[in-house]
Write a structure and sequence with these properties.
Blueprint: H1 6-10, H2 18-32, H3 40-56, H4 59-66, H5 90-97, E1 117-123, H6 125-130, E2 132-143, E3 159-160, E4 169-176, E5 179-186, E6 195-196, E7 209-220, E8 229-232, E9 248-254, E10 261-263, E11 266-274, H7 275-280, E12 282-288, E13 291-297, E14 306-309, E15 325-332, H8 339-352, H9 368-376
Parallel strand pairs: 1-9, 11-15
Antiparallel strand pairs: 2-7, 3-6, 4-5, 8-9, 10-11, 12-13, 14-15
Helix pairs in contact: 2-3, 2-5
């Protein structure tokens, strides 16, 4: 029978180091393992690389092979495709599960990180604009002061589990086509912790924490808006076993304002002024977030015109500067006139030559008769 080329089977040089041989085998094992590729040709190829690795990973067998002798002649190993008694099965496990070989995880810690919490904070528009400080009452879990998080009653401590002997896991050996396979699972008696609390703390029932209500003072920055989330690191609840706390998130809810409508960092409002004031001009006292300010209505102001008050809006979040306050003007036309007012209006119309105004239609606008026709046609 022709001698097998073990180096060629693994794709390594004849002077390859033990680490290079191991890496080559693990790479091929991940590709050719029967659980991944169950076809017969792949299984036969897997047996070949396994036999090659069994020889080249053993310094004595490799030396015999390099000298041209049969490395299995002494009966130290299994036949073709088999596993010798000293074959490191963990290398197959390493190929799939990493260097740990699927075991050696150790006991789980009782201390785990606490959960995050979210509370809603309602703000007025001025509080969102300029920021504020709030005292919040939070129902949360805190460290048990009696056992300081250990979960054990005062004067006692957790006992080492007699089933797993503190390892937190138990092992079981089964047989498969690969030989004997050792699997590990969390210890059913201690839950994987490696120890058992036989005398739990009466204050926290062994959890290491208790629920309570506490008050915290938080600073809400200027510029937040409805839906903003603010993270307060470490202000959440303490974890089981005295583990580190989670985070607290504040969800901002902005109350509607009776005058202003917020659009981003700009504020919008509408002011109603009489026709005479729009024609002649006037000064209005305007309420803003900064207090009363005078608003100059220029003569000839038109309905729908926007008057800006710069930097009277919302503070930019985490930036300098503010948005603007945009005032939309709506001109009120009188619907009822007494005799004297009507006479004055007619006199004004005569003076302006507007007794029979021709009307002006902007491009794209419908005439009165067109709108009337569309109404009857149901458009």
């Amino acid at each position: 029978m022709a001698k097998s080329d073990y180096y060629g089977t693994l794709g390594v040089r004849r002077d390859a180091s033990a680490e290079e041989i191991k890496k080559a085998y693990r790479r091929l094992a991940r590709e050719l393992h029967p659980d991944v590729n169950p076809d017969p040709e792949t299984q036969e190829r897997f047996k070949e690389i396994t036999q090659a690795y069994e020889v080249l990973s053993d310094s004595n067998k490799r030396q015999m092979y390099d000298m041209g002798a049969d490395p299995f002649a002494s009966g130290a190993g299994a036949g073709a495709g088999g596993f010798g008694a000293g074959f490191p099965f963990s290398d197959i496990m390493d190929a799939f599960f990493g260097a740990a070989g699927g075991g050696g995880r150790g006991p789980r810690s009782r201390a785990r990180r606490g959960r995050n919490a979210t509370i809603r904070v309602e703000l007025d528009l001025s509080e969102s604009a300029f920021g504020t400080t709030r005292e919040l009452v939070v129902d949360t879990a805190v460290l048990c002061e009696v056992c300081t998080g250990s979960g054990a009653a005062a004067g006692t401590h957790p006992d080492t589990c007699d089933m797993c002997h503190g390892r937190g896991e138990v092992s079981q050996v089964t047989r498969s086509f690969l030989g004997q396979v050792m699997t590990s699972r969390p210890c059913p008696q201690c839950g994987g912790f490696g120890s058992i609390i036989r005398n739990p703390c009466q204050e926290c029932s062994g959890d290491g924490r208790v629920r309570t209500r506490r008050t915290i003072k938080v600073r809400i920055p200027a510029g937040v808006e409805d839906g903003t989330h603010i993270q307060l690191a470490g202000e959440g609840e303490i974890g089981p076993g005295g583990g580190p706390p989670g985070d607290l998130f504040l969800e901002i809810v902005e109350r509607p304002h009776e005058i202003f409508e917020r659009r981003g960092d700009d504020l919008h409002c509408t002011v109603q002024i009489p026709m005479t004031a729009a024609s002649l001009g006037t000064i209005l006292t305007m309420e803003t977030l900064d207090g009363p300010e005078e608003l100059d209505i220029r003569p000839g102001t038109q309905s729908g015109q926007t008057i800006p008050l710069y930097s009277r809006g919302i503070q930019h979040l985490n930036e300098s500067g503010r948005g603007d306050l945009l005032i939309h003007v709506n001109i009120e036309t009188p619907s009822r006139l007494d005799a004297a007012q009507e006479e004055l209006m007619r006199e004004l119309a005569r003076l302006r030559g507007e007794e029979r105004p021709p009307g002006k239609f902007a491009p794209g606008q419908q005439s009165f008769f067109s709108r009337l026709r569309d109404a009857f046609n149901g458009r």
